[in-house]
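Supplementary Note 2. Why include the ligand at all?

Several targets in our set were suspected to adopt different conformations when bound, so apo predictions alone were not considered sufficient. For every target with a known small-molecule partner we therefore ran a joint prediction. The input for adenosine-3'-5'-diphosphate is given below.
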Amino acid sequence: EDFFLEYQGLLLPRETHCAESLNFAQEFTFKDDDVVAVTYPKSGTTWMQEILPLVLNGGDLTPVHTVVNWDRVPWLEETRLAKIVDKLTSPRALVTHFPYSFMPPSFHTSKAKVINVIRNPKDVLVSSYYFHQMANFLEDPGSFDEFMDKFLEGRVLFGKWTDHVKSWRCAELGDRIFFITYEEMAQDLPTSIRRISDFLCCSLSEDVIHKIAKHCSFESMKANTMSNFSLVPKEYMDSDKSPFLRKGVTGDWKNHFSSEQLVRFTSVINKELEEENFSLPWSLD
Ligand code: A3P
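The joint prediction is reproduced in token form.
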């Protein structure tokens, strides 16, 4: 389909990805002090683009007020990276939606750290559904029921949710990887920021943690033009249809799933996780 670029079996948005950007990603040189936030789309990427620079710089709000999030914490696989890579100062923070097997050689030889954010796939589906309505560079999602089928079959950006999650949880990166859930962040952001800062060996005072948490709240990010995607032209992202920072809650799936859809969705997801004797650290309900 025209909206998609197929890359080694993975569907990517043509608007932001091309052969050169994927080549650039494969040749990208990771540094030992790089941090990369790994997410399946709609799982908390933008949130990490806000949190990470603040944790790494000790809570200085300058970058989050002056640099748009996609330049502050760029995507490894997107075209924008090549243009701004020279301006990034270490320790650098990046994001990627790549499954583990797509990471470039230098990632494996470096000591770059990974923060993997996972979100309840039912909420990921709902968030993605609205995102497809507002992002004009993506195909119309059709009905929620149709979109659910596409999601479960992996005919969506970055493939199947289960493949993505399994790839990173089975990656055996030892103490280079830290797992956190969107739900934990939503429940207690200061504690989540403390755990992230401990993982990155950044010692932050309680005051700084709370300052970061305040800045990274849904309301504060929604009001920040550097973070809310309002600077993207309307022809690409139409916030009148649905804002990028839409609801920012857990469990919105309950407002969208019928009981039949819930059974269908959970049986497919659970089966795929069980196939490899794989269990998640938290319940998907
Ligand atoms: P909803 O559509 O459920 O509101 P991504 O950045 O990976 O594309 O994910 C987008 C989702 O993260 C959206 O979910 C968005 O609202 C949510 N999000 C972004 N920043 C957030 C924050 N500070 N607090 C809670 N949710 C946030």
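Residues 259-274 form the longest helix (16 residues). Residues 11 and 157 are 5 Å apart (CA to CA). Comparable summaries for the other entries are listed in the accompanying table.
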